[in-house]
Amino acid sequence: MKKLRFHLEAIIRDRYESDSLTENEIREWLLNMQKQDILKVETENDYWEDIPQDLFELFKTNIKDKNYEYTITKGHLRLEMEIQLEPEPDEES
Q1: pLDDT given for residue 76 in this prediction
Q2: How does DSSP assign the chain, residue by residue?
Q3: d(CA 59, CA 82)
Q4: pLDDT tens digits along 22-77
Q5: What is residue 27's DSSP assignment?
Q6: Which are the contacts of 90, defined by CB distance < 8 A and separation ≥ 6?
Q7: Does the pLDDT value for residue 15 go beyond 60?
Q8: Is 68 helix (H, G, I), strand (E, B) or coil?
Q9: pLDDT at 17 over 80
Q10: What is the CA radius of gyration of the chain?
Q11: Are 51 and 38 in contact (CB under 8 A)?
Q12: Which residues are CB-neighbours of 93 under 8 A, at least 6 positions away?
């Protein structure tokens, strides 16, 4: 199984009030996040400012599954998540 680690950056609310957001408020924002809310996405070898829709849908799925880590500083939300790129091979019976 091949996984790729993604680093996303987005602006969440005002830079002065965002540091006091609760974990539930951040999760709710992430669940409602739109593609245009993402400033950039990076991997070890790639960089996007306008991410493909398919990749955005994978991010949303990871968020729904709570498969991410985040930090927030002065309104900048930084997410890290791993996404499986290749399906796991089926076990032979």
Answers
A1: 86
A2: --EEEEEEEEE-S-TTTGGG--HHHHHHHHHT--GGGEEEEE-SS-EESS--HHHHHHHHHHHHTT--EEEEETTEEEEEEEEE-SPPPPPP-
A3: 9
A4: 889 889 999 999 999 999 999 989 999 999 999 999 999 999 999 999 998 888 89
A5: H
A6: none
A7: no
A8: coil
A9: no
A10: 15
A11: yes
A12: none
Closest CA to 7 of 92, 61, 68, 86: 68
Among 30, 31, 27, 6, which residue's Cα sits nearest to residue 84? 6
> CA-CA distance, 62 to 93, in Å (whole number)?
30
pLDDT-derived band of residue 93, with 50, 70 and 90 as boundaries?
Answer: very low
DSSP three-state, residue 74: coil
- Amino acid found at 49: E
List the domain boundaries for the chain: 3-68
Nearest to 42 by CA among 28, 26, 59, 25: 59
Nearest partner of 81 among 70, 93, 92, judged by Cα: 70
Tokens of 75: 């309104």
